[in-house]
Design goal:
homodimer; alpha+beta; Alpha-Beta Plaits; four-stranded antiparallel sheet; 3 helices; 4 strands
Chain lengths: 98, 98
């Protein structure tokens, strides 16, 4: 399992629009072949801080996500909402083993 | 969905023992009522750094995890392996919605 934890901090006025854009991305991404999780999380202590927890069966499937229309629409839609550049942290999934 | 991301950094000599202890914790935790994910992740850039991604249907179920024998065994087993205190970061899950 290949995981990316994407940390995003948005401008305060963009919180609701960002959540709406992430809903669309979530709904489409969980239908991708090889997707295992696409969780959208909000920090209760800092509501402008979000984490997208994206898990795929392998590196190829994780990379293929970036070729999808829904990813590219999300990326372009949320670009002006960012308070700072987002950070994607790749992690190797040990368990579950598949 | 109530998520906790637990960041752990272990001593280099404890990596394999820590993974074994996390396997046992993972196998038991995914059988808890209300557990949605119990992913064990290793940082490819820093193999002593792990993240446990623990998701439950609600706060009560997440708290109940700490009352289980398998959690308490894990906690006591890994305590001497820690290079620094672990950090649990709670997050609110927005999507999936249940």
């Amino acid at each position: 399992m290949q995981v990316t934890m994407v940390h995003v901090t948005v401008k305060p006025e963009a919180i609701q629009e960002f959540i709406a854009a992430c809903r669309d991305n979530h709904e489409a991404s969980i239908r991708e072949p090889g997707n295992l999780r696409f969780d959208v999380l909000q920090d209760p202590t800092l509501p402008t801080h979000f984490v997208l927890y994206e898990a795929y069966v392998g590196v190829a499937e994780a990379l293929a996500h970036k070729e999808t229309t829904h990813y590219q629409v999300w990326r372009d839609t949320v670009a002006p909402m960012m308070a700072e550049p987002r950070r994607g942290i790749p992690m190797n999934g040990l368990f579950p083993e598949s």
